Structure formats: structure tokens, C-alpha cells
């Protein structure tokens, strides 16, 4: 249990709760959930420019990272088809993957196919079901994809002014504006309470909020004097109690709760808001293809990691279809913007390619 680990090392409850957020981030779990300690480890195991456990902002926004990867691939001769949805994986008579068919009818032939989509999309939607073992399909269907995350993107016309660290007279950003700011994290009991509400189908009345202001470090993201604020919030269930839909009313009601919480820490925040974009778990699934809205393509619980990711016997990036590989967050070692799953999958695919 994460709570036991934190209690061994720290005395300050706000510090323990703040550290605990990385143990439950993106997970339908509380600090008291068995195995939650691993999720914290997962988020600090890497490094950034030689600094272990460090995270960073991508200059130009997260889309700039995709563009950098695309440019590197194109420089090596790759052809990129943007806005071209895949209809299904093409299979030969020997049941090997032979490429993909696009929804416009185009067929792209290849000896190997690597899928960065979720295991559910890859094997339940894009691969002919009759070519997959029934027990494998059942395992993929049973993967836990519950997600508590609602992402809110906000445009503001001034820098948030927090009571705990008031802004400078000249209005210039201070060090805390350049970091992740954790709200409603005065104690781990608050995180557990927020989790308990979501398990019952209700959005948290005092949600966990991770607030970042990337435009402080990357001014090009917003006009001068204005800023973009990224809110990573939880817990919100994918399915609301009593069958209530995640309609505009429900979305805005939850967002108002989040903004009321921020207002308590930074008076004037609500008045500074120019616009907001609310992405609930169903929105994240519909727009980005994340099953259940899960940013990791599946829960990062101990029963869905290592040799069991995405399912036992197929944790090495290969699939029941020869020539078809899984290289996204649903493969080992799981989610996070680190590229480990893709790199590992590429090495396995290249090794197989040598023997074709």
C-alpha cells in the first residue's frame, strides 16, 4: 500500500498527499488501494536530461512531440498518412499480417504491422476475430480500462494569484508557476474520499487537481499577458450513477466544482477565465481512442503489468497474428510519454524481420 510506504518516510500529511497523487494519477484507485505504490514508482523511474524522476514541458505543446517523431521518421524515408483511419489489418492465406486497409479503400502493404492503438482497438476492432484465439479475445475484453480522469484546458487573461504565494508586483511568473501545482491534497484521506465518491458513480465533490501553466515556460502558447492552464482532475467515473449521461450539463457542473476549488486557493481565477474545454472519460475515448478514457490504455495495476500486459503469454509485443505487434501504452511497461514500449516493440519486430 502506498500509504504505508509514505508513512514510513514522511511525517507531513500535505507532503504525503502530494506525493500520493503520482501513485493514483490516471488510475481508478486510492492511496489505500493495494499496488498503488507501483504507480508512483512508474512515474519517477525515468529521467529527463540526466535528472532522475524529472518531468518536463514540451516546447510548442504536446503536439510538437508528435511532429518531432514524425520528422525523424520522415528523414529516414517513412511515409506518413495523416487523417487516414485504418479499417482493418490485412492478413494473408498464411494468416500473417500483410499491411492495413484504410477506410477510403487504400491498401498499404507491409511485412510487419505495429499498432500504437490500444489492445482493444487493435484486436477487437481492427483484426478479424476469426483469426484470434477465443481465450485471447476474452482476455482483451476483460482488461480493466476504468479511468477517473477529466482533463480541462483553460484560457485565462491573467496569471493565477495564489493566497499561499501571492504574485509579484510586476506580475511576472514566480517559481511555483513553472511547476505542477497540486490542489485538494492536504491529506491522503481527501484523495480516498474523492475516489470513494467516484466508485459510487458520482464525480468527486472535492476532486484531486493537478494544475500546470505551460505558457509560463513557453510564451508562444498564449497571447501576451494571457495564459493556458492545464487541469488534470479526478475522480470522475466513466458511467454516472442512475444512468445519467455525461451531457453538457453534467460536464459543466463538474467543471464548476473544479473551478470553485481553485477559486478558494486563488481568488479571482474564475473571473480570469476566457474559455474552457472539458474532456470527460467518454470524451477521451471518443476523441483519442482511449478505452474507457484510460490514458494508459489499461489500468496500471499489478495484475496488468509486466508479463501480464496486455495479457499473459503475449507481453513481448508479439500477438497471435504473426507480423502484428503492439507498441503502445497497452504493452509493457505501460503508459507515460517515454517511448519505452515503442522502442522495445521495434527491436522485437526488427529481430523477426531478419528471419523473413
UniProtKB/TrEMBL annotation:
Keyword annotations of the record: FAD, Flavoprotein
Domain Amine oxidase: 35-170
Any one Gene Ontology molecular-function term assigned to this protein's record: oxidoreductase activity
Compartments it resides in: Mitochondrion matrix
CC terms in the record's Gene Ontology section: mitochondrial matrix
SUPFAM superfamilies found in the cross-reference section: FAD/NAD(P)-binding domain (SSF51905)
Family: Belongs to the carotenoid/retinoid oxidoreductase family.
Subunit field text: Interacts with COX5B; this interaction may contribute to localize PYROXD2 to the inner face of the inner mitochondrial membrane.
Stated role: Probable oxidoreductase that may play a role as regulator of mitochondrial function.
Name of the protein described by the UniProt record: Pyridine nucleotide-disulfide oxidoreductase domain-containing protein 2
Species of origin: Heliornis fulica
Lineage, highest ranks first: Eukaryota, Metazoa, Chordata, Craniata, Vertebrata
Amino acid at each position: 500500500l502506498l500509504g504505508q510506504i509514505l508513512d514510513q518516510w514522511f511525517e507531513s500529511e500535505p507532503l504525503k498527499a502530494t506525493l500520493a497523487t503520482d501513485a493514483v494519477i490516471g488510475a481508478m484507485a486510492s492511496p489505500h488501494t493495494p499496488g498503488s505504490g507501483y504507480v508512483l514508482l512508474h512515474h519517477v523511474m525515468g529521467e529527463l536530461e540526466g535528472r532522475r524522476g524529472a518531468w518536463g514541458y514540451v516546447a510548442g505543446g504536446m503536439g510538437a512531440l508528435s511532429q518531432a517523431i514524425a520528422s525523424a521518421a520522415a528523414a529516414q524515408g517513412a511515409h506518413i498518412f495523416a487523417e487516414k483511419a485504418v479499417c482493418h489489418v490485412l492478413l494473408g492465406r498464411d494468416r500473417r499480417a500483410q499491411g492495413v486497409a484504410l477506410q477510403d479503400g487504400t491498401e498499404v502493404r507491409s511485412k510487419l504491422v505495429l499498432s500504437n492503438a490500444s489492445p482493444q482497438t487493435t484486436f477487437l476492432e481492427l483484426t478479424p476475430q476469426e483469426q484470434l484465439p477465443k481465450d485471447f479475445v476474452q482476455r482483451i475484453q476483460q482488461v480493466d480500462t476504468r479511468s477517473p480522469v477529466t482533463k480541462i484546458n483553460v484560457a485565462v487573461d491573467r496569471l493565477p494569484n495564489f493566497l499561499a504565494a501571492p504574485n509579484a508586483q510586476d506580475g511576472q511568473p514566480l517559481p511555483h508557476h513553472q511547476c505542477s501545482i497540486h490542489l485538494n491534497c492536504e491529506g491522503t484521506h481527501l484523495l480516498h474520499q474523492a475516489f470513494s465518491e467516484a466508485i459510487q458513480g458520482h464525480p468527486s465533490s472535492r476532486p484531486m487537481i493537478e494544475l500546470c501553466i505551460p505558457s509560463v515556460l513557453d510564451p508562444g502558447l498564449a497571447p501576451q499577458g494571457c495564459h493556458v492552464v492545464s487541469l488534470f482532475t479526478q475522480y470522475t467515473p466513466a458511467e454516472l450513477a442512475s444512468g445519467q449521461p455525461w451531457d453538457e450539463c453534467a460536464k459543466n457542473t463538474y467543471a464548476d466544482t473544479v473551478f470553485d476549488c481553485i477559486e478558494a486557493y486563488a481568488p479571482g481565477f474564475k473571473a480570469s477565465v476566457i474559455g474552457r474545454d472539458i474532456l470527460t472519460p467518454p470524451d477521451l475515448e471518443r476523441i483519442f481512442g482511449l478505452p474507457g478514457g484510460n490514458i494508459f490504455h489499461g489500468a496500471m495495476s499489478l495484475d496488468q503489468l509486466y508479463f501480464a500486459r496486455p495479457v499473459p503469454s503475449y507481453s513481448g509485443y508479439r500477438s497471435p497474428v504473426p507480423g502484428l505487434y503492439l507498441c503502445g501504452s497497452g504493452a509493457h511497461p505501460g503508459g507515460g510519454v517515454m517511448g519505452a514500449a515503442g522502442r522495445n516493440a521495434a527491436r522485437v519486430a526488427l529481430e523477426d524481420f531478419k528471419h523473413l
